[in-house]
Predict the structure.
Amino acid sequence: MIKKHVVTWSVILTLLIVATVFAYQLPPAEKSVVKVVNRTPVKSPQIEEVPQAIKVVKVEAPKTKKVLMNFAKVTLPQGDKKAAAKMIKALNTFSYARVQTHRLHRKAAEWFPIIEPILKSYGIPEDFKYMPLVESGLQGGESPKGAAGFWQFMPGTARSYGLKVNDKVDERNNLRKSTIAACKYIKELHGIFGNWALVAAAYNVGDGHMRKQMDRQNQSNYFKMKLNRETGAYVYKLISMKQIIKNPVRYGYSARKELLALNKE
């Protein structure tokens, strides 16, 4: 019975994701309404009653607002089937049906108050706060290649941006200090690429490799580039994480108190 329920909810969740991959709309606008205002006739002791003309007031219907999925205001390409498929896969990856835990939201509630003001001080879009959740939100520790900490810095890169990494101290595991180091690196990458989606991809794969791929493919649009599997899915994961954190119930998470507090504006 449990397996049947999981399969059923997975199917329902996938259908919901398909419906919201590129954009979701506010409730449809109602038709224009015409109000008829009939004023009360003016009475005077000396003048005979003269009814005033009926005034027609046209009320404009509210416009439908369209909100596109994006990362740091870099939106998903519309009508691109490959992009849609990648987005659906990324959303499924972090859906409750897959992860079966509220760990991501608990980490967001704990980390964001520290990360957000640091990003702001460096002029970096707030959407980069989702990067540590993608990097180490579900699984912490050190990667097989040696990357570690909230922002998954390699030892050499961490040291070059001011972090201490030795046998006694590893500041990659200090959220505040590692976020400052990450901001320095991200700021530098933006000076090279000038596009936040490319910056995120370069953070994942390295700026040297990213530049080589851009030159080889003669392409500067992340969504149109052919990259390795991890980097090609990286920005989609960031967009997915943003959606999961901002709209937990839509992706199968319960409306817990910490989730409501996190998204309270």
User: Anything to note?
Assistant: The chain has one domain: 67-262. The longest strand covers residues 33-37.
